[in-house]
Specification:
Blueprint lengths: L3 E7 L2 E6 L8 E6 L2 E5 L8 H8 L2 E6 L5 H4 L9 E4 H9 L17 H8 L2 H5 L1 H4 L3 E4 L2 E4 L2 E7 L8 E6 L3 E5 L16 H14 L3 E4 L7 H16 L1
Parallel strand pairs: 4-5, 5-6, 6-7, 11-12
Antiparallel strand pairs: 1-2, 2-3, 3-4, 8-9, 9-10, 10-11
């Protein structure tokens, strides 16, 4: 049984989603000759080892966009370097809540076996900050097999949010700082003002691809449209 879906969305870049979880966040896997870099890691319920086997890659590094469980909980499964923002590292090491009140077994599909599999993940979430592997603090530039990954602070949705710009894809991995859907800035530590500034930064970069934390990958035209929509919503 596969726990992930796989879709090639850009050159050597796969979008992977947890097959049985309705509220799944996007995971991106950039591949090169049997090796890969991950952007985000999902809930931690679906095994990242499956991605490694299906795509026939070894994970060399991982970037985490922000400290919500559906984006970074799978990091506890990794042995490769995990790049995070300084504020995200503090959250991972000190905080006991990672948005887990949004996790519901009602959002899990696939019958009793799958629900039990996800239910068994819940106790592990409680000690996640103790189990996550060693982290390296961004901002930074990371060079890997002809790719350059540049990290940017993208606060707003959360203060620890980080974006990753990648060349030669000319793509921006934005996490929940931007995606085609309703903006969520209702968390206790969210900031609409910072969110608008983050949108301006993304707009200045003019990415060919926006690889968001949820929903579909956006090209230049769609990306510009969604950026405009978010700025209008957040400005009202």
């Amino acid at each position: 049984m596969h726990y992930w879906t796989y879709k090639l969305v850009a050159p050597s870049t796969y979008l992977c989603r947890e097959k049985f979880y309705i509220e799944t966040a996007n995971i991106f896997v950039i591949t090169h000759k049997g090796h890969a870099v991950l952007i985000d890691t999902g809930t931690g319920c679906a095994p990242l080892l499956e991605i490694s086997k299906v795509l026939k890659v070894t994970f060399d590094a991982c970037f985490i966009t922000h400290a919500h469980f559906d984006h970074f909980s799978g990091a506890q499964q990794l042995s490769c370097p995990v790049f995070v923002s300084a504020s995200l590292k503090n959250v991972m090491l000190r905080r006991n809540s990672f948005g887990l009140h949004f996790f519901s077994l009602a959002d899990v599909l696939g019958g009793a076996r799958v629900k039990l599999h996800y239910a068994n993940c819940i106790p592990r979430f409680a000690s996640l900050q103790k189990n996550v592997r060693a982290t390296t603090i961004a901002p930074m530039t990371f060079t890997w097999n002809g790719y350059n990954f540049m990290t940017f602070s993208l606060p707003g949705h959360t203060p620890d949010s980080m974006g990753v710009f990648c060349e030669p894809l000319h793509g921006f991995f934005t996490g929940d700082a931007l995606y085609n859907g309703t903006p969520y800035f209702s968390f206790q530590n969210s900031s609409v003002k910072q969110g608008i500034e983050s949108l301006k930064l993304i707009e200045r970069v003019k990415p060919t691809y926006i690889f968001p934390g949820h929903n579909d990958v956006l090209g230049e035209v769609a990306g510009a449209r969604v950026l405009k929509q978010w700025r209008e919503v957040l400005s009202t």
